[in-house]
Amino acid sequence: MIQTILFVCMGNICRSPLVEAVARKHLADAGLQVEVASCGTGGWHAGEAADPRMREAAASAGYNLDRHRARQLRSTDFDRYDLLLAMDRDNLSEMQRVSGSASSDRSALFLEWSGLPSPLEFPDPYYGERAGFADSVILAEQGVQGLIERLRHG
Description:
Distance between the termini: 8 Å
Strand content: 5-15%
Structural class: alpha/beta
Oligomer: single chain
Number of helices: 6
Order of helices and strands: EHEHHEHEHH
Shape: globular
Number of strands: 4
Mean pLDDT: 95
Protein backbone atom coordinates (compact mmCIF):
# COMPACT_ATOMS: atom_id res chain seq x y z
CA MET A 1 0.00 0.00 0.00
CA ILE A 2 1.27 3.46 -0.89
CA GLN A 3 1.70 5.66 2.16
CA THR A 4 4.27 8.20 0.94
CA ILE A 5 4.58 10.01 -2.39
CA LEU A 6 7.27 12.40 -3.60
CA PHE A 7 6.49 14.72 -6.53
CA VAL A 8 9.55 15.76 -8.54
CA CYS A 9 10.17 18.55 -11.04
CA MET A 10 13.27 20.43 -12.08
CA GLY A 11 13.69 23.25 -9.54
CA ASN A 12 10.90 22.55 -7.04
CA ILE A 13 9.44 26.05 -7.36
CA CYS A 14 6.52 25.54 -9.79
CA ARG A 15 5.01 22.18 -10.70
CA SER A 16 5.95 19.81 -7.90
CA PRO A 17 5.09 22.15 -4.99
CA LEU A 18 1.76 22.87 -6.66
CA VAL A 19 0.98 19.17 -7.09
CA GLU A 20 2.09 18.53 -3.50
CA ALA A 21 -0.37 21.17 -2.19
CA VAL A 22 -3.22 19.96 -4.40
CA ALA A 23 -2.57 16.33 -3.44
CA ARG A 24 -2.33 17.11 0.28
CA LYS A 25 -5.75 18.80 0.24
CA HIS A 26 -7.59 16.34 -1.97
CA LEU A 27 -6.10 13.20 -0.41
CA ALA A 28 -7.21 14.46 3.01
CA ASP A 29 -10.66 15.34 1.65
CA ALA A 30 -10.89 11.80 0.23
CA GLY A 31 -9.98 10.30 3.60
CA LEU A 32 -6.70 8.84 2.32
CA GLN A 33 -3.77 8.99 4.71
CA VAL A 34 -0.87 9.50 2.34
CA GLU A 35 2.11 11.68 3.20
CA VAL A 36 3.21 13.85 0.28
CA ALA A 37 6.26 16.01 -0.39
CA SER A 38 8.10 17.52 -3.35
CA CYS A 39 11.61 18.25 -4.54
CA GLY A 40 13.58 19.17 -7.63
CA THR A 41 16.24 17.30 -9.54
CA GLY A 42 18.35 20.48 -9.60
CA GLY A 43 19.54 22.32 -6.53
CA TRP A 44 19.86 25.89 -7.77
CA HIS A 45 16.60 26.98 -6.07
CA ALA A 46 17.18 25.09 -2.80
CA GLY A 47 15.77 27.06 0.13
CA GLU A 48 13.74 29.41 -2.07
CA ALA A 49 9.99 29.93 -1.95
CA ALA A 50 7.75 28.77 -4.77
CA ASP A 51 7.69 31.01 -7.83
CA PRO A 52 5.49 34.08 -7.11
CA ARG A 53 3.41 33.43 -10.24
CA MET A 54 2.70 29.87 -9.07
CA ARG A 55 1.88 31.06 -5.54
CA GLU A 56 -0.60 33.52 -7.04
CA ALA A 57 -2.23 30.96 -9.34
CA ALA A 58 -2.43 28.39 -6.53
CA ALA A 59 -3.89 30.92 -4.09
CA SER A 60 -6.57 31.88 -6.62
CA ALA A 61 -7.69 28.25 -6.57
CA GLY A 62 -7.49 27.88 -2.78
CA TYR A 63 -4.02 26.32 -2.35
CA ASN A 64 -1.39 27.96 -0.16
CA LEU A 65 2.27 27.60 -1.19
CA ASP A 66 3.61 30.29 1.18
CA ARG A 67 5.44 27.84 3.47
CA HIS A 68 7.08 25.89 0.67
CA ARG A 69 10.87 25.89 0.43
CA ALA A 70 12.55 24.17 -2.48
CA ARG A 71 14.90 21.27 -1.94
CA GLN A 72 16.91 18.98 -4.17
CA LEU A 73 16.31 15.27 -4.68
CA ARG A 74 18.47 13.09 -2.40
CA SER A 75 19.47 9.47 -2.79
CA THR A 76 17.74 8.75 0.54
CA ASP A 77 14.40 9.80 -1.00
CA PHE A 78 14.31 6.47 -2.83
CA ASP A 79 14.28 4.64 0.50
CA ARG A 80 11.86 7.02 2.18
CA TYR A 81 9.05 7.24 -0.40
CA ASP A 82 6.85 4.46 -1.73
CA LEU A 83 6.19 6.29 -5.00
CA LEU A 84 8.20 9.00 -6.78
CA LEU A 85 6.31 10.83 -9.52
CA ALA A 86 8.14 13.02 -12.02
CA MET A 87 6.56 15.91 -13.89
CA ASP A 88 8.37 15.13 -17.16
CA ARG A 89 10.69 12.63 -18.82
CA ASP A 90 13.83 14.69 -18.18
CA ASN A 91 13.12 14.62 -14.45
CA LEU A 92 12.30 10.91 -14.58
CA SER A 93 15.61 10.21 -16.33
CA GLU A 94 17.51 12.21 -13.71
CA MET A 95 15.69 10.37 -10.92
CA GLN A 96 16.66 7.04 -12.44
CA ARG A 97 20.26 8.21 -12.79
CA VAL A 98 20.41 9.21 -9.12
CA SER A 99 18.73 6.05 -7.85
CA GLY A 100 20.17 3.46 -10.18
CA SER A 101 17.76 0.70 -11.12
CA ALA A 102 16.60 0.09 -7.55
CA SER A 103 13.59 2.41 -7.72
CA SER A 104 12.49 1.95 -11.32
CA ASP A 105 9.35 0.10 -10.25
CA ARG A 106 8.40 2.98 -7.93
CA SER A 107 9.22 5.91 -10.25
CA ALA A 108 6.90 7.11 -12.99
CA LEU A 109 5.47 10.14 -14.73
CA PHE A 110 2.84 11.79 -12.51
CA LEU A 111 0.21 12.32 -15.21
CA GLU A 112 0.74 8.92 -16.82
CA TRP A 113 0.56 7.13 -13.45
CA SER A 114 -2.58 9.12 -12.67
CA GLY A 115 -4.25 7.74 -15.77
CA LEU A 116 -4.61 10.95 -17.78
CA PRO A 117 -4.58 10.24 -21.51
CA SER A 118 -2.80 13.45 -22.49
CA PRO A 119 -0.50 15.18 -21.89
CA LEU A 120 1.78 12.58 -20.33
CA GLU A 121 4.28 15.23 -19.33
CA PHE A 122 3.32 18.17 -17.11
CA PRO A 123 4.35 21.33 -19.03
CA ASP A 124 6.72 23.65 -17.18
CA PRO A 125 5.12 27.12 -16.98
CA TYR A 126 8.32 28.83 -15.77
CA TYR A 127 9.31 30.49 -19.07
CA GLY A 128 5.78 31.12 -20.29
CA GLU A 129 2.93 33.53 -19.68
CA ARG A 130 0.88 33.83 -16.48
CA ALA A 131 -1.93 31.82 -18.07
CA GLY A 132 0.34 28.77 -18.01
CA PHE A 133 0.39 28.89 -14.23
CA ALA A 134 -3.42 28.87 -14.04
CA ASP A 135 -3.45 25.99 -16.54
CA SER A 136 -1.00 24.16 -14.27
CA VAL A 137 -3.47 24.35 -11.39
CA ILE A 138 -6.20 22.75 -13.51
CA LEU A 139 -3.84 20.02 -14.72
CA ALA A 140 -2.63 19.35 -11.16
CA GLU A 141 -6.23 18.96 -9.97
CA GLN A 142 -7.04 16.56 -12.81
CA GLY A 143 -3.89 14.53 -12.16
CA VAL A 144 -4.55 14.33 -8.43
CA GLN A 145 -8.12 13.14 -9.04
CA GLY A 146 -6.70 10.36 -11.21
CA LEU A 147 -4.12 9.59 -8.53
CA ILE A 148 -6.86 9.29 -5.90
CA GLU A 149 -8.86 6.92 -8.10
CA ARG A 150 -5.81 4.74 -8.69
CA LEU A 151 -4.94 4.67 -5.00
CA ARG A 152 -8.51 3.70 -4.11
CA HIS A 153 -8.75 0.92 -6.68
CA GLY A 154 -5.16 -0.30 -6.72
